[in-house]
Amino acid sequence: MSKFIQEFKKFAIKGNAVDMAVGIIIGTAFGKVISSIVNDIIMPPIGWLIGGVDFSDLKVTMPSIVISGVEQMKTATINYGNFIQTLINFLIIALCVFLMVKSLNRLTGKHKDVPQSIPKTSNEEKLLTEIRDLMKGENKLTSRK
Predict the structure, then answer these.
(1) What Å distances lie between residue 1 and 7, 17, 19, CA to CA?
(2) Residue 92's closest CA among 27, 35, 22?
(3) Cβ distance 88 to 42 under 8 Å?
(4) Model confidence pLDDT, tens digit, residues 80-139
(5) pTM exceeds cut of 0.70
(6) CB 74 within 8 A of CB 68
(7) How far apart are CA 136 and CA 130, in angstroms?
(8) CB-CB neighbours of 34 under 10 Å
(9) What is the DSSP string of the chain?
């Protein structure tokens, strides 16, 4: 049991686990901010532009089924307005994360678009290449005789 605890301590104290936990906490808070931006700032003007529609109220109501005076199935709603708001939330969060990662990569110098320079060959590799080429030349001469 103590080996398990030691392994868990190593895992929990590692930078990756702590960084991941901080990222999840900040991401959750960031998601709430974006949800507020979408729900309180972006969607009201869009709803106003299309005739005063509140997207969170958009839904399709399924009828209840009544057989011989007894309600068999209660009404259900398909809340497609909430889905539209959630989709806009996701798109804005994805755009923000993309821009943030792109900015961090620019600041830290991690450019994947930059082609890697060709590594220089060492003196040993140059000599071995010359020896190989010379041996190929000698093999051609001996095969002609």
Answers:
(1) 10, 21, 27
(2) 35
(3) yes
(4) 988 888 888 888 888 888 888 888 888 877 655 556 677 787 888 888 888 888 888 776
(5) no
(6) no
(7) 10
(8) 20
(9) -HHHHHHHHHHHHSHHHHHHHHHHHHHHHHHHHHHHIIIIIIHHHHHHHTTS--GGG--EEEPPEEETTEEEE--EEE-HHHHHHHHHHHHHHHHHHHHHHHHHHHHHT--SSSPPPPPPPPHHHHHHHHHHHHHHHHHHHHHH-
Taking the C-alpha atoms of residue 82 and residue 39, their distance in angstroms, rounded to an integer, is 10
Copy the structure tokens of residue 66.
Answer: 């009544």
Place of tokens 């051609």: 140
Distance CA 70, CA 73 (A): 9
99: its two tokens: 């821009």
Structure-token pair, residue 67: 């057989």
